[in-house]
């Protein structure tokens, strides 16, 4: 049996306040997100300038959620649990490759090669594919492979799993847990808000499937809630909204924004909101600060009484089961 190296691909996040600026520099240096018409050197200058300008503000956000990103801690747990679940079926080891902060993708690759893995599986922790996330991580992986002059490794790419049944079930479980914060009277004036990370519209126009796959996830979760869950009759009567967060810069991004959606609903008299982070499998600054503090404050100031953010999948056993099945399916298809 060949030895598999499974690399979990994710965004990454600064592990301390002092590394926020360096993390931002890596992010703004990514040509898969910020495309410059001139040289790579020009982009590096831009990245240095923007990261310096934004660092002070972003540091304040991280200070409100413990002084660092929790994304690595959650990903370490996910890696450990996934490896344990896969061991009875595969000779494998699970590695972590972050795009913008350590452990970086090239470091994960080097570790996998050092362990004499015969086949490498790229498993994005982005359920919905985008060239700005999974695509960027794949590109960085292949750049790292080229630098090491490696051309004899078999690579298995898992691109996305937006409506995977077990992943959808894991999302529903998180929603059910968060629903415990609302009593029966609250449900008459409750909106379920699905908040996905936004991307520039130009990527969608150029064929990026992210919006389509986000809608697939949204519809699959709603279908499960309204037709398969124990409280399906309740969910059939709960209004839902899909919106997008975390816009950066002046270009047009996917809309409506999460902030605009919350403000609109508040003006309509909605008093109870449950926000579901749709494209995040680990809690991070976008869920803990942006949704949990920034958007919450806007909601409360606009008259909302209960504003709850569902926990990201994090260490969900059902989510790990989904990842296990996705890996085993990819291995089976490859044979």
Structure in words:
By secondary structure, the protein is α/β, with parallel strands linked by helices. It folds into 2 domains: 3-161 and 317-334, Rossmann fold (3-Layer(aba) Sandwich); 165-309, 3-Layer(aba) Sandwich (Rossmann fold). Helices cover 48% and strands 15% of the residues. It contains 12 helices and 8 strands. The protein has helices at 20-28, 40-63, 71-86, 105-114, 134-147, 165-179, 201-205, 210-227, 232-235, 258-267, 285-301, 317-334; strands at residues 3-10, 91-98, 119-124, 154-157, 190-197, 239-245, 272-277, 306-309. The strands form 2 sheets. A 4-stranded parallel sheet has the order 2-1-3-4, sandwiched between helices. Helix 5 links the parallel strand 3 and strand 4 (154-157). Helix 1 packs antiparallel against helix 2 (40-63). The chain starts with a strand and ends with a helix. The mean pLDDT is 96.
What is the total domain count?
2
**Individual helix count:** 12
The CATH architecture of the largest domain can be named as 3-Layer(aba) Sandwich
| Strand count | 8
Order of helices and strands: EHHHEHEHEHEHHHEHEHEH
Strand order of the largest sheet: 2-1-3-4
Subcellular location: Cytoplasm
EC number: 4.98.1.1
GO biological process, one term: heme biosynthetic process
Enzyme class: lyase
